[in-house]
Amino acid sequence: FSRDELRAHLASGNNPTPAAGLPVVTYSGASKTTLHMNGEEIQLIPVLNAHTDGDTMVYFTKANVLMVGDFYRSIQYPNIDRTNGGSLKGVLAAMNQVVTLANAQTKIVPGHGPVVDKTVVASTIELVTTIQNRVAALIAQGKTQEEVIAAKPLADLDARVKEAGTTGDRFLGQVYAELKAAK
């Protein structure tokens, strides 16, 4: 199962996935798709333009488990694949969607890192919004991407992200590219 966009990405490019490895069932649009298996309702929830343009959350309603995939990482800064339709706006919208859907007992399974609850995701929204505001202010000062990274705007935030050193500069560059393109 996948969104149409993901199947299209997998089937194209320099190293396409062989036909046998492509999703067999695809769906499109913003509406969820529901499967019923073994007494469980499983919702496939489209996530528009977050990590990529082909993201899907999977919510097991009876078990109250929400698998969110790569747009949310509990141990890293987000990774926005702008080449494949991802966006900062989409990442923030997707995390807000998680907080709205989840309740206090929901187990949220990220694309990377340990299972979390909705309070951790809400904290990440605040973190990403802070970064967005800081990068926007540096862009307004005329800073280049290299100067933004050199300014270390994440220095006081890195303690909140387990693998900050390996993902912080990447995320800063992605935020810079998106905000700069919007100007």
Gist?
With 183 residues, the protein is an alpha/beta fold. The chain has helices at residues 4-11, 88-101, 118-140, 145-150, 164-182; strands at residues 2-3, 26-27, 33-37, 40-47, 55-60, 65-73, 107-112. The strands form two sheets. A five-stranded mixed sheet has the order 3-4-5-6-7, with helices on one face.
How would you explain this protein's 3D organization?
This protein has 183 residues and is an alpha/beta fold. The protein has 5 helices and 7 strands; from the N terminus they run E-H-E-E-E-E-E-H-E-H-H-H. Helix 2 runs antiparallel to helix 3 and helix 3 packs across helix 5 (164-182). The model has no long low-confidence stretch (mean pLDDT 94).
- What order do the strands of the largest sheet run in, or round the barrel if closed? 3-4-5-6-7
Outline: globular
Low-confidence stretches: none
Q: What is the gyration radius calculated from CA atoms? A: 17 Å
Structural class: alpha/beta
Measured distance between first and last alpha carbons: 37 Å
Note the total helix count.
5
| Helix content estimate | 25-40%
Q: Tell me the number of strands.
A: 7
Order of helices and strands: EHEEEEEHEHHH
Strand-residue proportion: 15-25%
The largest pleated sheet is described as: 5 strands, mixed
**What's the mean pLDDT score?**
94
List its salient traits.
5 helices, alpha/beta, 38% helix, 183 residues, 5-stranded mixed β-sheet, two-stranded parallel ribbon, single chain
